[in-house]
């Protein structure tokens, strides 16, 4: 167990270092002089010289990289070219929105996906399975931003049940906050729900035909007890696995969903930055996404070994 | 060599009977047939769309903007600039399929050799695994954001960003199939016979891994089509005035109050394309599954 953790920690640290190098090199691949990009409006030679000195652009590349990492560790992601605000303070206002949206989407997806997956496996060959399978296929194939667009048009605008856009912080008004975020979270969760459903169904079919379930049935356990006891344990692994693997898709999805529903989160910040060529913000966004992916997947693997004892023993994430 | 050609010849004939069995299973599955017909039709329309489209995609008519569907001359109506929606959907679907194929080609060209190497050479496995981890850390949208910042937004860059993001999936399936095939007798026989690593990989392992690669490609294409739609919708993909289903939806969002129908059709086409690929991919996987009709 300890060895497995150490290996995983070392691998994650290495990946983190590599992605920092990629972002660092990527920024230097930007067209034009980085000092010009960082300068924004004020392009006088003195201003450019000051920027070169501040960011160490006159130093050799390895030195620049070391300074870059040093600033990152101190939480200094630079300053937005457009607004002049530090990127770190932009992140502290934007991130909670995205985290709330994503966590809510995962919860909705887990509830829908596990429920439909178990139903499809238990009701094998019946209309319920066909319906669940069909919905899952549609969930995989539908463009979610389009679903969001239709939801705004036909649910928010037409009926007024949900606000079409905007956001209220949770601490300000929890009810209004949920009212604003529930529709985007459902939309974001549908794709994930489809994947969880298919995996749950497959895992359930495997375990329903396994020896231990046959034993449980043979010793007279009620079918409901067999299903809930074994299904729940397995679904937990499925949900954790899918969330770990699909985290990239979830982040991409959150960006689009925020854009459609006008949520002032990480995604909106990203898209705005691209169109305003706000390079320090783009750089921070890319690096932060990579870091989040690596760190969360490390914890997913830890959680995994807690849920599934086989991994603890063999040290091999199946 | 003469002795050892026998097992190789046997694999060849076995693969022919396997192919007929797979095709028979596909023909007997109505969902497979329907999705295949839909895809063939879509491919045909996409290929011929420059000639089939009733109007030029750029032909504006400011006297007839937002004509609703079913109007004479414009079966699916017109958009904010009076351009024919049917023509733009046909060429938009063509662009979707282009990006889908281009992205998947990118991921296969880079992912298949890496997957083969990771599965075949132990020493390379760790290095390629770290490379995979690195790629996974950059979701396709973030990859596209970076590429758009460096090289500008375009159809090609969108396809490359999606394709790069799909490489880890290709490496994973090719690597595990290579590991499986490597342990089989006919590969061991070829190695004993003195075949070079390159020969074994290209003549024995790659041909036998084609079915998993094929399945991976059929599930990756719809994902790439959805990815293109997202990127174009956000302005990071195909640039106006070039027709794209994603940018059509972005325009529809701006004018949703005036022409709500414009937000429906392009989405239905994207979903239809992706659904046909996903259904066919499922059917193909079932047909290729040696365990048969278990599920």
Automatic annotation (TrEMBL), chain A:
Residues 95-300 form the ABC transmembrane type-1 domain. SUPFAM superfamilies: MetI-like (SSF161098). The chain crosses the membrane at residues 101-122, 134-157, 177-197, 236-261, 281-304. One of its GO terms (cellular component) is plasma membrane. It is found in: Cell membrane. It holds the Pfam family BPD_transp_1. Its main location: membrane. It comes from the Bacteria. PROSITE patterns: ABC_TM1 (PS50928). Belongs to the binding-protein-dependent transport system permease family. This is Peptide ABC transporter.
TrEMBL record, chain B:
Its main location: membrane. It comes from the Bacteria. InterPro entries: BP-dependent_transpt_permease, MetI-like, MetI-like_sf, OppC_N. PROSITE patterns: ABC_TM1 (PS50928). GO terms for biological process: transmembrane transport. Residues 93-281 form the ABC transmembrane type-1 domain. One of its GO terms (cellular component) is plasma membrane. The chain crosses the membrane at residues 31-53, 99-121, 133-150, 156-174, 212-238, 259-280. It is found in: Cell membrane. It holds the Pfam family OppC_N. Keywords: Cell membrane, Membrane, Transmembrane, Transmembrane helix, Transport. It is a multi-pass membrane protein. Belongs to the binding-protein-dependent transport system permease family. This is ABC transporter permease.
